[in-house]
Specification:
The chain has 10 helices and 9 strands. The longest helix has 29 residues. The protein folds into 2 domains: 60 residues; 201 residues, no CATH class. The protein is elongated, with a radius of gyration of 21 Å. The chain is an alpha+beta fold.
């Protein structure tokens, strides 16, 4: 595939989210290996399917999304500050290993009415306990299915056990979702482990590299007394985890729709979103004949 075609495809994907890209972002999310210089050289030739305004590139006749992105960046700044406050609460949970913002806010593309999506990675065998505690601590500010107001609410929609960090759905949509997460709390290099387990995303985004982490907590080596205490507590923690799982599954039984519930991974967002986006993307690519 020619690099110019890949550039157009990259802009098509982000156009679905009303999100024009800078030169650097085009290179980062390109579907084939290319240098920044190569991309810049091609953009200077003015590909007939795209246009530019200020520092942004977009599909022809879509200049309006530049203003959209700028306005959403302002909403996102406010929501990011709120997310960082939620982060202070969530990291009080001892079993939390990583907290990341996902979705629109992760790339500064939140609308005024958007909620705040989180991904949380827990220490091994504490997935359900971690979720229970997270929901309890953020209860006053948490989005629920019946929430009339979503703006600024915490949406705890992804939980992963550190034993199983590899995302099963491997496609262009999930590659972007992983690449775009914004880590706000990382303990014991969990983010790097997560990325290593999902190296498959390089197939879709070969130029992408991990981003800077906003707030890193350095790992600490356990001394022998801490290790002994942990060993003695294990049976109790396992019992709490089992009770947490059973009670939450019982509560969800009559309410479950498109959620993905497993022993080590929980996804509380509609799976058909990614299917719909990928279908629309394919149709758009076909319609502009790339």
């Amino acid at each position: 595939m020619r690099i110019q075609d890949s550039i157009v495809k990259t802009l098509v994907y982000h156009d679905m989210f009303d999100y024009p890209l800078t030169r650097e972002e085009i290179t980062k999310y390109l579907s084939q290996k290319a240098s920044q210089k190569q991309v810049e050289t091609i953009l200077k030739t003015q590909i007939n399917k795209i246009q530019s305004k200020k520092r942004f590139y977009y599909l022809k006749n879509r200049s309006d999304i530049v203003a959209t992105r700028v306005s959403r960046e302002q909403f996102s700044k406010q929501k990011l500050n709120r997310a960082l406050k939620f982060n202070i609460i969530l990291k009080l949970i001892p079993s939390v290993k990583l907290i990341a913002i996902t979705g629109a806010l992760a790339v500064g593309n939140s609308t005024k009415n958007d909620d705040i999506d989180f991904m949380i990675i827990s220490s091994k065998k504490t997935l359900w306990t971690t979720r229970m505690l997270a929901n309890l601590l953020l209860w006053p500010w948490k989005r629920t299915p019946n929430s009339r107001v979503q703006s600024g609410k915490a949406c705890l929609n992804i939980f992963l056990d550190e034993r199983d960090l590899k995302i099963k759905d491997q496609n262009l949509y999930t590659a972007h979702e992983i690449a775009q997460i914004r880590v706000i709390y990382d303990k014991e290099n969990t983010y790097i482990r997560f990325i290593k387990e999902n190296k498959w995303l390089q197939k879709y985004l070969p130029n992408w590299q991990p981003e800077h982490i906003l707030n890193v907590q350095s790992s600490k080596t356990k001394n022998s007394m801490q290790a002994y205490s942990a060993m003695m507590l294990n049976p109790l923690l396992n019992k709490i985890e089992m009770i947490s799982k059973q009670s939450q599954l019982a509560y969800m039984k009559s309410k479950q729709t498109t959620e993905q519930i497993g022993d080590t991974q929980l996804f509380f967002h509609p799976k058909n979103i990614q299917r719909n986006i990928l279908e629309v993307y394919k149709k758009k690519i076909k319609s502009i004949k790339v």
